[in-house]
Amino acid sequence: MEPGCIAVDSTVGNGIDTLFLARLAGPLGMVHGFDIQQAALDSARDRLRRENAPDCVRLHLAGHESMCETLPREVLGQVRAVMFNFGYLPGSDGSVITRPETSCAAVDAAISVLAPGGLITMVLYTGHPGGAEEADALEAHCAGLSTETAWVMRSVLLNHRNAQTRVLLVEKR
Fold first, then answer.
1. Interval 24-57: pLDDT, tens
2. Rounded to an integer, what distance in angstroms lies between the CA atom of residue 70 and that of residue 72?
3. 1 in any annotated domain
4. What is the mean pLDDT of the chain?
5. What pLDDT score was predicted for residue 95?
6. Nearby residues of 108 by Cβ (< 8 Å), 6 or more positions away
7. At what angle do helices 131-143 and 100-113 cross, to 10 degrees?
8. What is the CB neighbour count within 10 angstroms for residue 128?
9. 53, 9 in Cβ contact below 8 A?
10. Nearby residues of 141 by Cβ (< 8 Å), 6 or more positions away
11. Domain tally, the chain
12. pTM (2 decimals)?
């Protein structure tokens, strides 16, 4: 991703990835952030302000599965990067989690908004209730993608609690 590009943070959370993408996109780029929790968007907005992030972020109080309907029409097919951190907002109500049905739909939406050669990163946390089931569903969903549509790479990490963290990288063809 280079300065001036368009990117999406599909799971804004506390804004760490939003800030990362904003710095890469720079003032000539645009980052769209999605989250279903106002607290996440507020936290991200505070982080962006504290860190003097470029003024290139638009936050959406919406589910990531709605990105095709929410993003401006002119950016569809122009997005260079989409980031996902599936699970829940750290430091908040752990019962509000991403779910397989909306997460798989969001991956399909992300592929459709990407430019050819664009990348999707997915971090799948399995250490919370529902996390392993969602990770399995997302892996199966991505394994079913045609190689003419996308290439998928999978990696498994062991974190300090010995719970698996899985990472998927998808490149649109």
1. 999 999 999 999 999 999 999 999 999 999 999 9
2. 6
3. no
4. 92
5. 74
6. none
7. 40
8. 15
9. no
10. 104, 107
11. 1
12. 0.93
Strand blocks (E) in the chain: 6-9, 30-35, 57-61, 79-86, 114-125, 150-158, 164-172
Residue 73, φ and ψ in degrees, nearest 5: -55, -35
Length in residues, the chain: 173
CATH, residue 100: 3.40.50.150
Is the separation of the CB atoms in 165 and 87 below 8 Å?
no
Is the CA virtual torsion 37, 75, 169, 4 positive or negative?
negative
CB 165 within 8 A of CB 159: yes
**What range does the domain containing 101 cover?**
6-172
* pLDDT recorded at residue 161: 64
- Distances from the Cα of 47 to the Cα of 13, 51, 113, 147, angstroms: 11, 6, 26, 38
Name the more confident of 129 and 53.
Answer: 53
